[in-house]
Amino acid sequence: MIRKSDLSGFNIPGTIEALKATLFADDTTVYLSEEDDFGVLQDILDTWCSAAKARFNISKTEIIPIGEVTYRTEVITTYRSTGTWKNFPQNARMAGEGEPVRILGAFIGNGVRQCEAWSPTLAKLDSVLERWQKGISTLEGRRHVVQMFIGGMTQFLTDVQSMPPQVCKRLEKVLRKYLWNDRIIPPVSMEYACASFEHGGL
């Protein structure tokens, strides 16, 4: 219904159709141009909810203003001070500058610091490795833990968010610390430890 509506959405160069919505399971992201009226979208949502016997949770709705800084500032300031902006829903979260919004595991927003987006993942990883450090395992076992958690828990976020150099350095430090059981001077340099099996590495 949204894609067939009169909403303009985002016109992206090189694409055939305008981007109006992306859907995954019960998550819906709608893209509105400056000329689009949220009231039109609301009518579509009301119709869909009536037919599907469902409802959209407005309290979980998050709005990310897009455009020039002056326009974004005007939207954020007006909405937060008055609770309204054009026909936008009330009681939704209006993301400010530097405030990330999580969409399907990625953190999106204006002026978002990438290192902050990584903070929850790094904290969770520290907790997991701390528990594994209490056990007794061989070097081979530690290699599996590194691949499962340091590799597995960062793969998706790296793909959708990219990994800042600071985060990469921190992960290398965490990996080295866990792999060599907190030894200050590891018995084998990381260059050789990270080499392929054919070259004697892990």
Distance between the termini: 52 Å
Largest sheet, order of strands side by side?
Answer: 1-2
Structural class: mainly alpha
Q: What fraction of the residues are assigned to beta strands by DSSP?
A: 5-15%
Number of helices: 6
Indicate the overall shape.
Answer: elongated
Q: What count of domains describes the coordinates?
A: 2
Radius of gyration: 23 Å
Q: Indicate the mean pLDDT.
A: 87
**Low-confidence region ranges:** none
Largest sheet: 2 strands, antiparallel
Order of helices and strands: EEHEHEEEHHHH
Helix percentage:
40-55%
Strand tally is 6
Organism: Lentinus tigrinus ALCF2SS1-6
Protein name: Reverse transcriptase domain-containing protein
What does this entry look like structurally?
With 202 residues, this protein is mainly α. The protein folds into two domains: 2-98, no CATH class; 114-199, no CATH class. The chain has helices spanning 38-52, 69-82, 114-133, 139-161, 165-179, 190-193, and strands at 21-24, 27-30, 62-63, 93-94, 101-103, 106-108. The strands form three sheets. A two-stranded antiparallel sheet has the order 1-2. Strands 3-4 form a two-stranded parallel sheet. A two-stranded antiparallel sheet has the order 5-6. Strand 3 (62-63), helix 2 and strand 4 (93-94) form a beta-alpha-beta unit. It is elongated. The protein starts with 20 loop residues before the first strand and ends in a 9-residue tail after the last helix. 10% of the residues are buried.
